[in-house]
Design a protein that fits this description.
This protein is an alpha+beta fold and 257 residues long. It is built from ten helices and nine strands. The chain folds into two domains: 59 residues, Winged helix-like DNA-binding domain superfamily/Winged helix DNA-binding domain (Arc Repressor Mutant, subunit A), CATH 1.10.10; 181 residues, Beta-Lactamase (2-Layer Sandwich). The strands form two sheets. Strands 6-5-4-9-8-7 form a six-stranded antiparallel beta sheet, sandwiched between helices. The C terminus is likely disordered. Keywords: DNA-binding, Transcription, Transcription regulation.
Length: 257
C-alpha cells in the first residue's frame, strides 16, 4: 500500500461510525504495522487533519473546518443555487426549507440549505449527513435521471437492500422511477421525517444530473391540497431548471466574487 493510500485509508476510517481511533486500532484495521500507522498519523496530525485526544486516541482535526469554509465559499453549485433557493421560498412558502443535495458514493448528501422565515419543522438533511439513496424525494429524483448504466450498477450493489424494500428485480426498480422522470420531479411524504413532505427536481450540467433541489414542507395531513402541491412542484422545477441553465454557462471551477 502506498503512502497516499495509507493517508486516504486512515481518513476513511472516521466515516465508519467510530470518531476516535488509536494508532494500534488504525494499524489493525488497515493491516499495517504500528510503526507505519504511527508515521502516517504523525504526518496527518502535523497537517491539522488529525487531532490527539485523551486515551492515546485521534479525532479529525481543524483542517477540515477550514476546508469546509473554503468549499462553502468556492463551490459554484452553492453560489449559483442560493439565489434560486431564496426565490423559491418567496414564491411558495416561508414555512419550509430548500435543500441542495448531491450524490455521494451510494448515498445522497445535503450540501446547502436555505430556511424559510416562518416556523416549520426542521429538515432532516443536515449539511454533510449521508442519507439513503433510495428514500426521500432528493434521492429519488437523482436516481430517476441517472444513465441506465450507472443506475444498474447502483441496483446491483444494493440488490439485497432493495429486495427487502419490495423491489425484486432490475426491471421493477427501473419502472418505479419512470413516473418521476416523466413528471420531472419527485414527491415523497414522511419517508425521511414524520410530518414532512418533500418535492425535488433534478439539477443537470451538460445534460447529466449532478444534484437535486428540494422544497421540504411541514404537513399536518396525509392528503395535502393537490392544487397547492402542484403549484409548489412547478416552482421547484423552475428553480432547478434555472440553476441547471446557469451551471451550463458557468466557468468550471469558478469561485464566487
Amino acid at each position: 500500500m502506498s503512502r497516499q493510500s495509507h493517508i486516504l485509508s486512515i481518513l476513511q476510517l472516521f466515516d465508519t461510525g467510530m470518531s476516535v481511533w488509536t494508532v494500534e486500532e488504525i494499524a489493525k484495521a488497515l493491516g499495517v504495522s504500528v510503526r507505519t500507522a504511527y508515521r502516517t498519523v504523525r504526518e496527518l496530525t502535523q497537517g491539522g487533519f488529525l487531532d490527539p485526544v485523551s486515551g492515546a486516541g485521534y479525532v479529525l482535526g481543524p483542517a477540515f473546518i477550514r476546508f469546509d469554509r473554503v468549499l462553502r465559499q468556492s463551490d459554484p453549485l452553492i453560489h449559483i443555487a442560493t439565489p434560486a433557493m431564496e426565490r423559491l421560498l418567496d414564491e411558495t412558502s416561508q414555512e419550509a426549507a430548500v435543500i441542495l443535495c448531491r450524490r455521494f458514493k451510494d448515498c445522497v448528501m445535503s450540501v446547502h440549505m436555505v430556511e424559510g422565515r416562518e416556523p416549520h419543522l426542521p429538515a432532516s438533511y443536515e449539511r454533510g449527513a449521508a442519507m439513503p439513496l433510495f428514500l426521500g424525494a432528493p434521492a429519488k429524483v437523482i436516481l430517476a435521471f441517472l444513465p441506465d448504466r450507472v443506475l444498474r450498477g447502483l441496483y446491483l450493489r444494493n440488490d439485497a437492500e432493495l429486495r427487502r424494500s419490495g423491489i425484486d428485480s432490475w426491471l421493477s426498480f427501473k419502472e418505479q422511477l419512470k413516473p418521476v422522470r416523466k413528471a420531472g420531479y419527485a414527491m415523497t411524504q414522511a419517508e425521511i421525517g414524520e410530518g414532512r413532505l418533500g418535492i425535488a427536481a433534478p439539477i443537470t450540467r451538460d445534460g447529466l444530473v449532478v444534484a437535486s433541489l428540494s422544497l421540504v414542507l411541514s404537513v399536518r395531513s396525509n392528503r395535502p391540497d393537490a392544487d397547492r402541491i402542484a403549484h409548489f412542484a412547478e416552482g421547484v422545477r423552475r428553480a432547478a431548471s434555472a440553476v441547471s441553465a446557469a451551471l451550463d454557462v458557468s466557468e468550471p471551477g469558478a469561485a464566487p466574487r
